[in-house]
Structures are given as structure tokens and as C-alpha cells.
Write a structure and sequence with these properties.
By secondary structure, this protein is low in regular secondary structure. About 0% of the residues lie in helices and about 10% in strands.
């Protein structure tokens, strides 16, 4: 985890380096599709629904430079 409590994941073909491999998800060197699976243990809908219109939005994807 980062100092602010967030988590950085490295989704890429090549290793980001030994110190970051714990957060590395190997991916092909081509187009990929990311899917977020959420589990909600309550009877009311989570704040992410309806998709794209809820009060909570997942953080965006940032392409590393």
C-alpha cells in the first residue's frame, strides 16, 4: 500500500522490478480488458450502481510513463 492508503497495481507484460513484483499482474503486450468484480453483502444496491451513475466511481487507470 501507498502512504495514503491507496494501492498501486502494475498491469504490464514486463516485470516492474523486484521491489514491485508483489503488485504486478502480468498481461500480454496487446489490448487488454479490465473487469472489476465487487461483492456486496447487503440487500441494498452498492453506491456504484447503476453502472456509471452511482455516487462512487472506481479510480481511473493511469498509463505509466
Amino acid at each position: 500500500k501507498n502512504e495514503d492508503g491507496s494501492l498501486t497495481l502494475y498491469i504490464q507484460k514486463d516485470s516492474p522490478g523486484a521491489g514491485k513484483e508483489a503488485n504486478w499482474l502480468p498481461a500480454p503486450n496487446d489490448t487488454i480488458y479490465l473487469v472489476m468484480r465487487l461483492y456486496w453483502p447487503k440487500t441494498e444496491a452498492p453506491s456504484i450502481l447503476p453502472a456509471g451513475e452511482g455516487t462512487w466511481q472506481p479510480p481511473g487507470i493511469v498509463v505509466a510513463q
